[in-house]
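Sanity check

After download, print the first record. It should look like this:
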Amino acid sequence: MKISSTLYAKQIKSDRQEKGLKTFDGGLGENPFPQPLSLVNTLKKYASLKSYTNVQGIKELREILGDNLIIGNGLKPLLFLIQLAFSKTYANGKIFHIIPSWVSYMEQTNILNIDTHQIIQQDPLGKIQPDELDKGLSLTSEKSLIIFNNPTNPTGLFYTKKEVKEIAKVFKKHKTIVISDIIYQDLVHQKYKNDIGKLEDYYDLVINGASLSKNVACGGYRFGWLNFKSDKLKNLYDCTTILASSIYSCPSLPFQYVALEALKYPKDVRELINKQRVTFQEISEYCQEELSKLNLEYSKSNAAWYFLISFENYKNYLNSLNIFTSDDLCQYLIKNSGLITVAGSAFGIKKKLILRYSYVDLDIKIIDDKMEINYKNIREFLKLLKNFLKK
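Expected structure tokens:
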């Protein structure tokens, strides 16, 4: 076992900054925007509350998200719990991960020592295709569970209504239980904000997972939830509830009220989400233009703040520098240019010179109640990348 690759990137940044070394952070992907004031005020208002609740959450949360709710300290531990619960509920069941996928999905099943099948996209810079899913899920006749991330980390791509409808047909065919990781759902870029498909509109064996970390920029608050959309999942829900209550009893009560406020989408939450949609679209379009000039292939990011960037067109040049893997490339750029990314291997991508870049290294200031956003670090990142590739 080793530390999470994304959190390791954050540690590298801290270490370099302590040494006074210039650093350009495209690693962790933490939301750089300030959280809405309404959420800060809600936390202050309820900070005195200290009672135990339970893992189903307060009544008001269940009224918004549904009765089959499990809350936890962020989505990450809840994904750990649901994969563990599935392995206990269905002893012969199979868990599937779509590759590339967020690093923690695989890290967790490795820790749990659960046999996991990978469904590898033919195009790591694109999206999973229904026929690829069908082929992968056909490997077992046992009960199956898969994590479907929309929009996706690490590609920064979302699935449209039409695409989700076709994918749902495959899940229905195999009666697959789906953890629908929708943590970036509100962050589809402005131009496409109404185009994203929602799996629960087409399929019932769905468990939605989300948190306060991404859309409202409250990653450190550590509050997330799983919403079981069908009573057909009762056995899995009951098992997950038991495990959750045995491990952490309940999340802090004040943060439940913060989540409640966020889910009401007050004015400043809506404004923040819209600001992010516009900002990240602008940055994505700028980055795509610059990456194309460098003859680099990349995922056409249209949600959240991620790119997968392929350096395969520079393979011979990189090999001459003793760079043969994505890990080699990642470490070389950190050491020689201060450019922090995450190696493609962390997302299950093998034998490809691919890195994930998070375009969140922004300088954001509030001046006279107006938000000023400076992209200078992103511009400098791309400039240094250009210098490296043109040597």
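If your output differs, re-run the checksum step. Summary of this record's structure: The chain has a mean pLDDT of 96.
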